[in-house]
Design goal:
121 residues, 6-stranded antiparallel beta sheet, 24% strand, alpha+beta, Aspartate Aminotransferase, domain 1
Length: 121
């Protein structure tokens, strides 16, 4: 997945916002909370996303994937797709979508309603 594809996909998810921060990373948020980060190098898109505990255990040792630097070292369940073979684009999109859901569900019910997310999740 390229950064353009990543940004297009994340932008199509409900109630998202985009900022460039942390040294030029593509950062996607829902309700002000990060759910996906794109940034590693120009050749291979490094995409970081939040996972469930089970998904983290399944993904952390797969080739091309690793616990996300900085985030996972602090006990957070984030995975970074950083090299091939990694995940197929379809699977990567599924995990990004799940990350959006995980982060959205952590927002207050009031915030979810304000963003129009309650009926979706």
């Amino acid at each position: 997945m390229t950064y353009d594809q990543f940004n297009t996909f994340c932008g199509a998810l409900p109630a998202t916002t985009y900022v460039v921060q942390w040294g030029g990373s593509h950062v996607w948020k829902v309700g002000g909370k990060v759910f996906a980060i794109g940034g590693w190098d120009d050749d291979e898109a490094g995409i970081t996303f939040k996972t469930s505990d089970i998904a983290f255990e399944m993904l952390q040792d797969q080739p091309g994937l690793r616990p996300a630097p900085y985030l996972a070292s602090r006990g957070m369940k984030w995975i970074q797709h950083y090299a091939k073979p990694g995940l197929a684009d379809k699977d990567l999109k599924d995990y990004i979508h799940q990350s959006h859901r995980i982060v959205s569900s952590g927002l207050s019910k009031k915030k979810q309603r304000e963003l129009g997310l309650v009926p979706l999740y």
